[in-house]
Amino acid sequence: MSGRPTYDPLFLFIGGAWIAAEGRAASPVVDPATGETIGAVPLAGPDDLDRALEAAWKGFAAWRAVPAFERGKLLRRAAELIRARAEASAVQLTLEEGKLLAEARQEVAAAADIFDWFAEEGRRAYGRVIPARAEASRFTVQREPVGPMAAFTPWNFPATGPARKIAASLAAGCSCIIKPAEETPATALAIARALDEAGLPKGVLNVVFGDPAAVSAHLIASPVIRKISFTGSTRVGRLLGALAADGVKRTTLELGGHAPVIVFEDADLDRAVSLALAAKFRNAGQVCTSPTRFYLHETLHDRFVEAFAAGAQAMTVGDGLAAESRMGPLANPRRLSAMEALVDDALRTGASLAAGGRRVGDQGFFWRPTVLADTPASARIMNEEPFGPIIVTQAFDDLDAVVAEANRLPFGLAAYAFTRSLSTATAISERLESGMVGLNTFTITVPETPFGGVKQSGHGREGGLEGLDAYLVAKLVSQM
Hints:
This protein has 480 residues and is α/β, with parallel strands linked by helices. The protein has 2 domains: 12-255 and 457-479, 3-Layer(aba) Sandwich (Aldehyde Dehydrogenase, Chain A, domain 1); 259-446, Aldehyde Dehydrogenase, Chain A, domain 2 (3-Layer(aba) Sandwich). It has 14 helices and 22 strands. The strands form 6 sheets. A 7-stranded mixed sheet has the order 14-15-16-13-12-18-19, with helices on both faces. A 6-stranded mixed sheet has the order 9-8-7-10-11-21, sandwiched between helices. Helix 9 links the parallel strand 12 and strand 13. Helix 2 (68-84) runs antiparallel to helix 5 and helix 4 packs parallel to helix 5. The radius of gyration is 23 Å and the shape is globular.
């Protein structure tokens, strides 16, 4: 496709040095809108990882000694640089991940907000004094950084994913080695460059790419690393959790979801449809909190499906850089294959196709927004997170039954409900097994709120004061 913007050169960032491929192996970066290779990211070898570990250890010694007030000033400077370059970063993000340019702009702006939030919250890592039991004695609790941490982020949010982990760890006084997704490297590198230019000491942040299994095993096994933070699939989360357990290392795991949406009989149907269309097809449904399993009261099930399907069919699918597009491509060909398999299985098990269900064109990785109505619980898509632009629906008429169905899966990241009843809203928020619940809204994530799940959706939280706590340890000092 001619006339497309230029993709930035790619590097490793170790010990404050920007390192090009220089004979290393490299992995191609593909534009999801065209299917064409637009760059090659250098892959770190064992020697590179050892240098990153040494740099992180030295960086931690220096950074933890910097007062929280001064750390905050530097993080705010980085946030200002991210905002100043937001348009260029958004274009890079769309080129490598595919989402709409408007969504990319919002994500880059959110990344800057995350740095601002943790810049301030890092100044509030308060300790406490505990009343002593004897005269002339004293108990104090000090909160200190846990140490160098290893972070692993996926491809679907190339800006906010790394920002959450980097900002929180640096605000707490930790150093960080982060391995962003090899498919979307430029956005994370732009964040690292902003921090570097803001004056971050060398080695406090290191950015590496490479074979995911090899990199994670190498870093987690090192005695330098004291904490692991991972966002991705439950399958990989289990593997990294086992590696961390071998070294008794702290973990934050934000894993898969399969968000239910319960629309009660008294809900504002038009509002629920409008909000659901925007939330479901954001980033082509490649969002861990994306609403997917729609449980609709039997009195409004068919009306909801009809209205939602009409909205899905009217949606313009196209290049994320095109102003007329309302949904961009899937990020990679693996997602196309997954959509095809899940839709075929659902139709075989008895679901009805109300909209979409097929690929768009033969260039790039585009998929039509899809609605599968009356989908049986036995269908794979009712049990596996689709991570794409598909919703499935079932009708219900009993509160206990729909709660049981919503909670049936081993996941519990996000859940949603729509009702005008305060008592129903209170009851459903208490009964849903989920780390986050949206009532009459799909907006559940801002920098000051905790983000994370329960059950096999992981443990620990990112964002909010809980996100800072994840990088701090409590030390008791007893003095006589």
